[in-house]
Write a structure and sequence with these properties.
4 copies of one chain form a homotetramer. Chain A contains 12 helices and 13 strands. Helices cover about 30% and strands about 20% of the residues of chain A.
Chain lengths: ~350, ~350, ~350, ~350
């Protein structure tokens, strides 16, 4: 059994990790930390876990964390970078669900996250945990930077086009929509049901922290910088991201359906839908799949990719478990095979 | 008082017309027809109207309709074109909320609407009822083709850019999102709350009937054909359209905020928001405003326009009343000045 | 024109007061205070008010408030009682939307609200602002205690039965359901969309502050104490209260429909629905009506009353405006005649 | 492996059965019938099943159904009673998720369901499939009448009180609220998102088909008829039932918490919450639990029981699988142990 610990488990990625790890056949949940909630049984905060998780939150304790095989950080940005070194030195593998190790260019990271990086040397070592791109490196990684939710949906959608150099790279558009759970479980007037229900808006149009992360992913795939406009929007619902991606084809004769099907053949968690499909976010709710459809409307030179994930699963906790599975040699789908509940 | 009739008032545009006309200071609601519901008091079908509207549905009667000053068609596509001629001949002004008279090119209309046009000669006469473009023509029109909901939001958002020739016309993108009331008040599994709540999807990517209408509007504004990709999406909410529009600027030195502010100066129903804004659909719920914000993210050459309307008001019944106000010389805001209910 | 001021306008009752007063034909909105938001234009916080309300929040200023004819308190409990005396002395009428003056028994008030009362002498003077019960007293009142949302819906539903002594008073049941806006516009994890959407629960079963208020109302109507079980529930929606009331009839021969129709004949804001009806909260959204239906299922001796209001209108700001209309001799429906937006 | 068939799988109980049976370790899904959808892969209608269920709908075929060990009827009322006899004769066990075999009194059944019963002799044989009451009989049953959703939530909530004779039986009140999926996956204007979102109402107050079923359950538990008022309500959400139950205690000295805890000790699917709790429907979403809390507000003689289930799981498909597990000697939790997804 893999002994797993979670640092900072009171948010939505925390409860999602708990749900997935509690049902994982090869994991023993050993510790979940929260300074503010130390002593509280997790099932009191998250009653869906009653009868499944007996742990209580505890204050972080280095010895306990170091007795784990893997530690997940479900903390705000800036925490994992202060604790990872010690854990790695103790032989513990680390998966950070926050952004501390995602951006290779430290200056870019420090600009977008507004703080100096506490641990630059680990940034270079960290593997960006998108298994569909980096599986081999993840297998041998000590430290995995789990991707952001928008970057996962957008990158997987653009990847086949960009890797093959099929589209103009100077005018990519990612129009992305997310449920409110992406904002986390923190008291904020703007996320009250009374503020969000029955309404829709864009936000962060001038610049969102996931923009440099997506750009980095696409630049690596393209072998050059890309011009990307990324507009996130807030959906009046809890879970799910839908990215609608637009790019101009250099050559309209390419068979897009085959391109996508072949790129993701064998990928357990990318489902390329039949031609003409429109994926619904509810079909991946609670589930680690990314479902993708590709269109070329009106036979124009604009390709439209529709890419959906559950922001808390493939966009966070599920992908973290997938990474753990890769790192520890488990079946990649272990603990991740539940069917989405519909309706 | 303007004597008004409504043909086909059992749908959502019908009840919205009733609500707006019942509160209009210069209108006397004279008749509302429905073959299937003849005899039913409208307030039984729409209990919000109890105490405000005493009419019952009646079967269509030519004499009664001809006694009106204006008749609104809130019918499915293909109905108004069979009845308009007779009403116009009787001196009644007609406002069609369906699509019968929106598209000038009959071949295009017949392809997208899948039927032969019953009244081609009136297509030429009909005025497209977007007052921000055609106010003078509407003033003198006998027959107004009330715009579609998506075309209203998208056209108003692109208009200042396209009229001035500031953007490349071959790769416009309109990523639009609508509440479910746009699908009308008809029994359909896909619009059940259990199918839509908590989920999001695109639809109609290969082609949607509003595409040729938007193209016609933009081509008229540009003086040439435009290349437009239009992807509609279904929001898990009742009312509201949010169009997110993308275009490539030919010249990034243009002052976009001033451009939009000046284009819509004096327009009562277009509200250009301050720089950096993100309009929310709830701020126009039940209200005839189109609220617009314009962005140029990361100082790139891509302009992003955010345009919101209530699909049943500025996108249907409210714009119809606005057109009536213009046609009959009323104050353009008459009956349309209620403040959106928030939260 | 009635010069009106609002103290504490940053919550949901504040914005609702602004919406209603901005559209009131006989009111001039003079001031709205907020210490924390002083200087902020109200239309920036509540963009539905753009173009309708030009005021900015200001810090409370005694002179300005004293220049008003009426001041509304849309403040947390415990504020109005510290400021009312001074305003009354200056000849300003006061309507408190919080609970400071609702409970006549000071000991009860202090127990449920957890603080000493700052102004006991005004409690005696204050008139409980339920016009359907206290219209005459309100007409002459200087100080009105605007009822709570649940108490309004529950009291109006039970009133005809209790006033006439038709039901057993020892086992009344009020099962009430409210939208989340009843919890106010304050950051609280429990009111996040991600916590409330798609779920339902009771709360406050052991005891809720509206229980003593409802008991007081019913005891006054009955002329004796009543035994009431009150269970509030949280609906996954923004606005609306639905109270389902249960009582045992002493005599099943009473004509309940007539009883209710006669009790509320002439009341502009109580709509007794036809027999067999089920009122929907959406039919009163944004609107000051209380809609009521009365049932006696299966001809048993249990009467079921269904009573719906909009918690922010008839349950708060709308009733406050209704009270103002009564106090200042306006038409009781002035500013309150908009039709609910449906769907 | 248990060979399982489903008759009528195009509704919400059908897809839920598919989801649960596809993940059941001891079940082989052999056939799912639908006359109207014959030939359609089930994963096209329910895309959450893509990759998990390869079956297509087929027209009902007696030979194929008779090759199953168990056949579930997820059909409208009135279908199972015409097909059950033949299957039972062929040695197939039958679980009917509709109402055909729930009511023992045929006259009552025929009155509420509006048709003559096609198979009265099986009504007597059928076992009412509430394992918490009838486990032993279910174990040996050939034919199980799976309970209704409301009856499950209400019966489990009242049971400890009624079995022990602790409450007055003449004035029980069940105020129940259900998500819209209880109305099934059929096109109906009243269940459109635009009709239901953001609103709440009661329905069926004069009489609902689940009333006689609940009465039968409680009468059996009490050993005498009971007087019950049952008012169902429609929640603006997809899944979940919350029953709020009211009864008058004969003796207020009883320890209610212990009563409930002891009654359901050992029950895998009834979770009695700690004192003071308020169960949320989301904590059982997709899950077979009934969560119950018991209160005695203000130390009065009225007991309030809060009982929540997922109407499609413990209220339908999950309970059917639980019954199958009991009938076939599987672990009762087999296939039913997934944790509810929250948020």
């Amino acid at each position: 059994m893999i002994k797993a610990g979670i640092v900072g488990g009171t948010g939505y990625t925390g409860v999602e990790l708990l749900r997935l790890l509690a049902g994982h056949p090869e994991v023993e949940l050993r510790v979940i930390t929260s300074r503010s909630e130390a002593g509280l049984p997790v099932a009191e905060m998250f009653p869906n876990l009653r009868g499944h998780v007996d742990l209580a939150f505890t204050a972080p304790d280095a010895a306990v964390l170091q007795s784990c095989d893997v530690v997940f950080f479900a903390t705000p940005n800036g925490t994992a970078m202060t604790m990872a070194r010690e854990l790695l030195d103790a032989g513990v593998k680390v998966i950070d669900l926050a952004a501390d190790f995602r951006i290779k260019d430290l200056a870019v990271w420090e600009k977008w996250y507004g703080m100096p990086h506490a641990c630059p040397e680990l940034v270079a070592e960290a593997v960006y945990g998108l298994p569909e791109v980096n599986r081999a490196a993840i297998r041998n990684a000590r430290l995995v930077a789990n991707p952001g939710c928008y970057p996962t949906a957008v990158t997987l959608g653009f990847l086949p086009l960009v890797e093959q150099g099929l589209v103009s790279l100077d005018g990519l558009v990612a129009d992305a929509k997310s449920g409110v759970s992406g904002a986390g479980r923190k008291a904020a007037v703007g996320m009250l049901l009374a503020e969000v229900e029955g309404s829709f808006k864009a936000y962060g149009t001038p610049g969102h922290r996931h923009l440099p992360e997506i750009r980095q992913n696409l630049a690596l795939a393209a072998g050059q910088d890309v011009g990307l406009t990324f507009v996130p929007h807030l959906l009046p619902m809890t879970r799910g991201i839908h990215a609608t991606l637009y790019a101009r084809l250099k050559d309209t004769s390419v068979d897009l359906q085959t391109l996508f099907a072949e790129r993701y053949a064998g990928e357990e968690f990318v489902d390329v839908l039949p031609p003409g499909s429109h994926p619904e976010t509810r079909t991946v709710r609670g589930n680690n799949l990314c479902r993708i459809a590709v269109h070329r409307p009106q036979d124009s030179d604009t390709v439209v990719v529709l890419s959906v994930i559950d922001n808390l699963v493939k966009g966070a906790a599920g992908q973290a478990v997938q990474n753990m599975n890769v790192m520890f040699g488990c079946k990649e789908t272990a603990g991740l095979d539940a069917i989405a509940v519909l309706p």
